[in-house]
Amino acid sequence: MFHTLTAMVSLALDPLDGDFPKTLAVNDFYWRDPRGGFDWPMGHIQMLEYMSGQTLEGQISNYLPPALAPGFIFEAVAQRLMSFLVISEDLPDPENRVRLGKDNRIEIDYKHNNLEGHHRLVETLQRALDGFVSHAHPIGQHRLEFSSLLPLYGTAHMAGTARMGADAAASVVDPWCKAHELDNLYIVDTSFFVTSTAVNPTLTVVANAMRVGDHLKARLAA
């Protein structure tokens, strides 16, 4: 599993003050749509990191010759970008797996799921950005918007390859993150997650590692 991600980039006519990127996050829609009509988790919205002209140039220069895209254009575009990530939970699917293929090569089978709530959250952000206007420019209320569901290679925080559970037939580790079939193996990275979550997992991993550590101390003391 991994985050179900849509990157949404808005290009305005006027430069935007983006000195404090990644400081806005919205969890109002994580568990359900508070406006009604959808009682399942939708996910999390957060601003992307600062986008510089150099970053854009690195992403696009492979597709355009330098004469058609000089550096000052990238810098001008970067100053007018407002970028967001829409993140939803990816759910466990027995068909999504990491396996050993031919010639001992690692192969990944994956298809997206849980997309209804994700699409609803994308539409929610789109409607919110429709109200973003710039009164300093006579046509400043107009903007271009690009959004794209990111593929597997476009994300981080993969999780769930050794998911937690009480049933050894349906999970790899028990509720204390001990491998069902081994007494001396504990797995405390994001592998134990039963869903991907729609937020960054680091603090959850740290908290669980401390929980498992206390369990091991008590077990060894006994």
Q: Which structural category do the helix and sheet elements fall into?
A: alpha+beta
Mean pLDDT: 83
Please estimate the helix content. 10-25%
Strand content: 15-25%
The helix-strand sequence is EEEHHEEEHEH
| Strand numbers in spatial order across the main sheet | 2-3-4-1-7
Write down the domain tally.
Answer: 2
Calculate Rg over CA atoms: 22 Å
Number of helices: 4
Q: Assembly state here? A: single chain
Question: What is the fold's blueprint, element by element?
Answer:
Blueprint: E1 4-12, E2 25-26, E3 44-47, H1 53-60, H2 71-78, E4 81-88, E5 97-100, E6 106-109, H3 115-130, E7 143-149, H4 202-221
Antiparallel strand pairs: 1-4, 1-7, 2-3, 3-4, 5-6
Helix pairs in contact: 1-2
Descriptive notes:
- The chain is an alpha+beta fold and 222 residues long.
- It folds into two domains: 4-152, no CATH class; 157-222, no CATH class.
- Helices cover 23% and strands 17% of the residues.
- It is built from four helices and seven strands.
- It has a five-stranded antiparallel sheet, with helices on one face. A two-stranded antiparallel ribbon has the order 5-6.
- It is elongated, with a radius of gyration of 22 Å.
- The model is unreliable at 137-142 (pLDDT under 50).
